[in-house]
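Reopening this ticket.

The earlier resolution said the output was attached, but the attachment link was broken on my side. Pasting everything inline this time so it's all in one place.
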Amino acid sequence: MKKLLLVSAAILAVITLFNVKANAQTPLSATGTVPLRIVLSDAIAITMKAADDVEFDYTTAADYQGSKTVPKTGHFTVVSNRAYKVAVKALAFTPATSGNSTVVPLNIIQVSVGTSPTVGTFNTATLGTTDQTLVTTSPATIAASYNINYTIPTAAALVGITKDTYATVVTYTATQL
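Inline output:
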């Protein structure tokens, strides 16, 4: 009986030794948690291409006989996290020469989207002093670059106007839908 107890104790000691050795080889670890959130806000921006003036030159008789288009590649870029629209308007033309009270109508100029971007719903807007819709709807984007065409379809409204340089400022407004 003593022998049986000694053998049992020896076996138990060996098993305990192997178990301790096996546990010693297992690396210790600990875990921790941290909350993570993404906070989204609506954001929209429109950036005009630097030094991208639009100029129509009427210097010859042939200039007055047809339509003229001034294309502007990458004229402005829109960033918006939601669908948006774009409107265009301008101030009244101002002659460079003081004392010149000649009025050049804004509505002789049409503004349209060229070949880029390829998604969205576009209109040809007739320039005026109130917002005219150029882009009815366009999807959210991180950088939609717009090619814009400025067109005077006929110079008839320019015939008889005092020679001068007439200037205005065109404003584009991007609004989320």
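Reporter confirms the inline version is readable. The mean pLDDT is 89. The domain at 44-176 is CATH 2.60.40 (Immunoglobulin-like).
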